[in-house]
Amino acid sequence: MGVTADEVHRATEVRPAPRWVAPTFVVLALLTLPWIGYLALTLPRHAVAVHYRAAWVGFDLGLVALLALTAWRAYRGDRRVVVAATATATLLAVDAWFDVVTTPAGPDLVVSVLSAALVELPLAAVCLWIARHGDRMVARRLRLLAVRAQLATDRADAARRTAVTARRRLARFRGRR
Question: From CA 111, how far away is CA 101, in angstroms rounded?
Answer without folding.
Answer: 12
